[in-house]
Design a protein that fits this description.
Distance between the termini: 64 Å
Strand content: 15-25%
Strand order of the largest sheet: 6-8-9-11-10
Radius of gyration: 25 Å
Helix content: 10-25%
Number of strands: 15
Order of helices and strands: EEHEEEEEEEEEHHHEEEEHHH
Low-confidence stretches: none
Shape: globular
Length: 339
């Protein structure tokens, strides 16, 4: 059995209060509404695949290799070769380097099972590169340079295997990072553990300040200040900001500014504050003009136009994206961008 602490299958505050209430239907009639639930729990085993997952708990990556045709199954999904009349395969310990077999997609809007983990990247890693034939290992891919974004995990990028410090015997006990992001010492570590890497303070990308971008930033700040003023008159925007307190430093190709959110108010000031909660980067200040107009900071992050340091920063974007929409609905304006 695993010695890891197990969380409840559902959080203790997950269930709705047990209540019944009257509601008005669209037809004007009164109906009775009640809370209910539908949950299915079950246990299953990995079966003969258990050997692979137990090896992960020991910080080892194994595959199964056919003694006749020498093909390797990664992960060890079978121990009997389907190409050689199901001859019994042997265990082979695999290395900690691999190559991405195809460009990896980034999941932004996950299913309920992965809420709170997005965005994340998952791809197929070619591990047994010396074998005449081998399957690819489906794995999570991570970067130490901030949030997973387009252009990092492309076909052919070299990867290094990383094990989580605490492992339960699951495919999520491992992930891969680009070799180019690691030091020689990290590349030589076997096994390389998650705690050996720095995900907490990634270095923001450098931006070049241009006169054209300076002008764009002036317009963006004016638009954001207009939005901040109108949000004070919008009940929906006030609800969006309720309970929020953030100091966000923003670096752009037109200069730096900061977003202060507190007491249901948003304030924009030039320059980066001494102790921001986080710093985000956009080379093009028009990212923020587009946000106020009818754009999306979430889309900008997904497309790589907005750099974020971590997933916590990403979780903030939907709240910010609601502000222009909420204000437009309450103020009756189709577009908030200053003309």
């Amino acid at each position: 059995m695993s010695t890891l602490e197990r969380s409840p299958a559902l959080p203790l505050d997950f269930n709705l209060p047990n209540e019944t209430e009257e509601i008005q239907g669209r037809d004007g009639k009164t109906y009775l509404q009640f809370t209910t639930h539908m949950v299915t729990f079950y246990k299953q085993t990995y079966g003969e695949h258990s050997r692979f997952f137990m090896a992960l708990r020991e910080a080892r990556l194994i595959g199964s290799r056919c003694p006749k045709c020498r093909q390797v199954a990664v992960p060890a999904a079978t121990w009997h070769c389907p190409a050689c009349n199901f001859v019994e395969m042997e265990e082979v310990e695999l290395g900690d380097r691999g190559v991405l077999a195809a460009q990896a997609p980034i999941t932004i809007f996950p299913s309920a099972s992965f809420i709170g983990q997005a965005p994340f990247c998952r791809g197929y890693v070619d591990v047994a590169t010396d074998a005449p034939a081998a399957s690819y290992l489906p794995s999570r891919l991570r970067t130490t340079t901030g949030l997973e974004r387009p252009g990092i995990f492309v076909k052919g990028v070299e990867l290094k295997l990383v094990f989580k410090d605490e492992r339960a015997g699951s495919i999520t006990d491992i992930f891969w990072v680009p070799v180019s992001e690691l030091s020689r010492e990290q590349l030589d570590k076997k096994p390389l553990l998650e705690s050996h890497l720095n995900f907490a303070t990634p270095k923001p990308p450098a931006v070049t300040v241009t006169e054209e971008a300076r002008g764009e930033l002036v317009q963006a700040i004016a638009a954001m200040r207009d939005l901040a003023a109108m949000a004070q008159e919008s009940p929906r925007a006030q609800a969006d900001l309720a309970g929020r307190a953030h100091v966000i430093g923003v670096k752009t190709g037109g200069g730096d500014f900061a977003l202060f959110i507190k007491d249901r108010r948003m304030r924009i000031e030039e320059g980066i504050p001494r102790k921001p909660d986080l710093v985000i980067v956009a080379a093009d200040p028009k990212v923020f003009s587009a946000w106020v107009a009818d754009g999306s900071l979430t889309d900008a992050a997904v497309e790589g136009a907005l750099w974020l340091p971590d997933r916590n920063a990403f979780q903030l974007l939907p709240i910010l994206d609601r502000l222009p929409r909420s204000t437009r609905r309450d103020m009756g304006q189709p577009n908030l961008l200053r003309r």
